[in-house]
Amino acid sequence: MEIVRSQRKPADAAVAPALSLYRSAPALEVRLEDFELFAIDRLRGTIKTPAFPISRVFLVLQGISDGLSRGKKPDEMEKLVSELWRAHMRHQDPSEEMNKDIISHFVLRLVYCRTEDLRKWFLSMETFLFRYRFRLESPESQRLLMSEFQLPYKAISHAEFETVKDKLNQVARSTGPSSNAETLFFKVPFEEVPELVAGRRVFMLKGFAYVAMNQVVSLVATQFRSNLSKALVLTNRKWTSTIRDKEKNRLTPIVEALSTGYLGPDYSQPKEFSEISLKDIDQLASSSFPLCMRHLFDKLRENHHLKHGGRMQLGLFLKAVGLKLEDALAFWKSEFSQKVGAERFDKEYSYSIRHNYGKEGKRTDYTPYACHKIISSTPSVGDHHGCPYRHFSEENLRAALGKMGVGGRSLDDILDKVRSRHYQVACTLTFEAVHAASCDSGINHPNQYFEASQKTLQTTRQATS
Amino acid sequence: MDTNENCLQYPNQPEIFGCCDRILVRREHSSLVSHSSVPFKKGKGEHRNLRLLPTLRLYPRIMTKEETSAERDDMQIDERDLEHPQVSTIPRGFSADYLKLYYGKLFPHADIYRWLSYGNDGKHPACDHSYFGRREFSFTLENDIYIRFQSFNNAVDMENSIREKCPYKIDIGPVYSVDPAKRHAYAQSGNNVFAPVERELIFDIDMSDYDDVRYCCSGADVCLNCWPLMTISMKVLDTALRDDFGFNHILWVYSGRRGVHCWVCDGRARRLSNEQRAAIADYFRVYKGGENNVKKVNLTGPVLHPFLARSYTDVLKGFFEGKLLASQNLFASIERFQKILEIIPDESIASELLDKWQGNRRSSISKEDVNVVRWEQLKHVLQSGKQKAQGLRRCVEEIIFTYTYPRLDMEVSKHMNHLLKAPFCVHPKTALFLILDPITVAIIQYLLLEELNMSGMRSESEDEWERTSLGKSIKFFRSSFLSPLLKSCKEEMESLYNSKVKQSKNALNW
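Structure tokens for the assembled complex are given below, as produced in the milestone run.
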């Protein structure tokens, strides 16, 4: 951890934000036990997952991650974050709280700096948390923080405001009836506010975005994120070059242990005993595949083709299920050759299957997609991937569930969850309906569904034999 | 940033191709002819003047300019063959020899080099002479062999390599931090030192993504009735890229098969990160949905964002009502109008209209086109004062957006390392390419045959060559795109250099 600047001393306690920018590592001594404890508290959440060791179960950041993937609405998320923070980070003494905040953040930087995936996840969650806490600050303290981030944007003049007033109004109204009339706007190069541009929440003119005061959070969050991103890369460099070795008997085992299990098993290594053979695959699809994979599988059998997104989602899933590379090639070939011919399959498609198994190119062994990734994908024309609970119309979803044998009361419950955007809960309910058994852990990953299904079926088989 | 007066603003069309959209289409067993389509509003109700392009003839035989109808029938390449080319219809030796000639005499190596150097090929002290060498190219060779990470230090190296390898397709990738040929040396450190640093902002619109809303063609086929979907997409995007994002140097290219590519070449665009590219792509995204989602356009909110409103008023509405309704017969049969009715979230309204139209005999409808009549009825029902429900407020717009709004391939735009086919590439089997401005389109088929005939005459009369389609394309590329771009690059480079010099002078003064 490097020292960038000494910590800013708050001049006026009333105005000074309680929010740290984590610019510099604290010059504090931290006991080793507190090290792990603070980090765990910060990561705490409210989801029980028996698969994980108890000491690592509850995570604030995990809680946020979970809430987001369940499609919680913004006001629900705010409530959730506030509960999580209160439950795990609050301290009577505000300076103690500040300490815990800062220390735990830096500890987690060590934990999450080490791979691209870890960094990406940590960045997203910390930024989300930051945004939520920024909104709670007063306008003066927000402006103070803005200047901390060196955002030298001046508010637009009254004259300029008059010329674009109508368009600004139009944008405000287009984003929702609850937006209040704003009169303070900043003119900002669009590169600084990608989220606002992406959501069409700002008026755009000749490369500038007109950002309302209440959207300033986005500006600051982008800077926060970019600073943290750079810091994580530096931390990683330092970790691999000096710290890891030096701390091999002290911090290193804790740090490495802290990061496994928090994101859940990623199913990148199929278990030894779970190899499946081609002749079983149809039967397995109808008994144990979650709806998203079942749909892709059926469409593949029907059309003898899938577009890229579908090939990735299904292909990686099958890999984790235990389909060996040779079998995978045979399977995809048997379907695709009916549409494009064997030769074209060999030429155009087999490469990417081998790529998925880490046999080509930079030889990364790609990990199968977890639910949150599938839910946030963007299927387009001709695509069948994505999460059916999110991406299907109600009618199509009804039909698809019917094909799985789900009906009646169960179906209604599931559709209810879908309407309130609890997609993973809907999938869990589907599991329960299909297997006539409960699923305590909640579905986070298609391969988790598959394994749970196989386990349940095996238990049933044993019970009846 | 003020608009560069030399830059291409689509209302001020260069003379070469005339204005408004022109489409040269190969009708079955006939030669290429030019057609006009309905002029579009320029925003203030003006209609552009239509100008005719000369008719192009197909030359089915090598080396002869005459054509007989028998020969013509033999040598037509069916559009369907684009998917499954049958080698038997193309004379052997055609591909390799003509490619060689094409790359030897016609392919504009120097212009491509000048373009992609962005001014760094000059003598100015601020020029970065490593710049061009850090650009990745990829070649697809005969027998579909694909080679990546090709790079060249200068125009001569590039030309020699292309002429030697005769690629069927050339793709352009990003500019990397180091020469791609040296990438392995940097990959070991694991710090991502080999990474893209510049890349044009690109868009890809593919006609086959519109298969669910066009009934005239599907897949790789394109015709007079559905091609306008491309031109209006270009209009919508081009306007937004200039007016909303402030970009000036935009190149639109026919992708050689069934769609268009857009290259935004401003320095500011080239330096965008992946996240910023994704943001722009999302700004443009309206149509959402895979195969299983019925309602693919959702326009929530009491009013539209100014970008969508402008696109709707200036381009989409007029096109839908004035052209698409009739040319695609959107209401003429039950399957077709069912598709539109599915977009209406209110069951009772949808079934009311369904009953009304199912019961209607063609003869009982007045002389007016059935599509127009039914569309008016639908609008009347949805927009009448009775409809206060949220979901219905924007339904008419949603329908129009569903059928006409541009459908982008998001993945192409989001990543800096995405490779895209180079302009002026000619595939010997299809032999189709064109350069176009947002309004005008010219498709040249059997380019090699015609142009090679012409190029033989080049030394005798420069005029003749320039009046060929390739000549025009290159001239257009140079005057409307390349010159303004390079001028702007030079200015940018000079001002940056001057300010650096000034800074160091000030430092010395201490």
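The first strand of chain B starts at residue 22 and ends at 25. Confidence is low (pLDDT under 50) at residues 1-94, 431-461 of chain B. Further analysis is deferred to the final report.
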